[in-house]
Amino acid sequence: DQQVKQNSPSLSVQEGRISILNCDYTNSMFDYFLWYKKYPAEGPTFLISISSIKDKNEDGRFTVFLNKSAKHLSLHIVPSQPGDSAVYFCAASEGDSSYKLIFGSGTRLLVRP
Amino acid sequence: DAGVIQSPRHEVTEMGQEVTLRCKPISGHNSLFWYRQTMMRGLELLIYFNNNVPIDDSGMPEDRFSAKMPNASFSTLKIQPSEPRDSAVYFCASSPDGQGFYGYTFGSGTRLTVV
């Protein structure tokens, strides 16, 4: 049973436009959420995170939104750049097991020049 | 900072053989994680060490898998005997405090193919 779901396996966006990547979760005990970016032949790299006590966190071009009632989070990238083309994973952790990240299956983003 | 270093980058082995994957975490990080990525199951935690002690090995698939951390700068993941279904990318990651809040630092992974 997947606790973290990324239902869109791929997304294509024009350079300069907004990219919106979505993630849903089922475990209401999750209290911390993260986004990772992964390039081919590399490990995932941490991008941005958000605590369940917030509904928005912003870092430069990247903003994560959390809707707890809908058990949904999204990552907005504005403006999108070709270098943003990668696989994006959302992940979640729960309280006492905060070391254990549960990952979604990933969304491949392609930013077209 | 060289990051998390994994070796080998690629490993091809025959079914039944022993496979050993190696990891050097970032100096000063007290937590180390082994993750596996497959098409079917995505990224899943295999085992978590804190201060060289295994804390959570509930993700280790079966007795064929074992992991050790003899010191703060080295860990191994061993599969004996290996099977074709073990084919995957194995990632090692480390963090300074064992908390997921600021993310882990992952290595580049070892792509294992068992034929």
Task: Walk me through what this model shows.
The complex is a heterodimer of chains A (113) and B (115). Chain A has no helices and eleven strands. With 113 residues, chain A is an all-beta fold. In chain A, a hairpin with a 4-residue loop joins strand 7 and strand 8. In chain A, the strands form two sheets. In chain A, strands 2, 4, 5, 9, 10 and 11 form a six-stranded mixed β-sheet that branches. A five-stranded antiparallel β-sheet of chain A has the order 1-3-8-7-6, with no helix packed on it. With 115 residues, chain B is mainly beta. Chain B is 0% helix and 54% strand. Chain B is built from no helices and eleven strands. Chain B is globular. The interface between A and B is medium-sized, with 24 and 26 residues.
Which helices and strands appear, and what pairs or packs with what?
The complex is a heterodimer of chains A (113) and B (115).
Chain A: E1 4-5, E2 10-14, E3 19-25, E4 30-38, E5 45-51, E6 56-59, E7 62-67, E8 72-77, E9 86-94, E10 97-103, E11 107-112
Parallel strand pairs in A: 2-11
Antiparallel strand pairs in A: 1-3, 3-8, 4-5, 4-9, 6-7, 7-8, 9-10, 9-11
Chain B: E1 5-7, E2 10-13, E3 19-24, E4 31-38, E5 42-50, E6 53-56, E7 65-71, E8 74-79, E9 88-95, E10 105-106, E11 110-114
Parallel strand pairs in B: 2-11
Antiparallel strand pairs in B: 1-3, 3-8, 4-5, 4-9, 5-6, 7-8, 9-10, 9-11
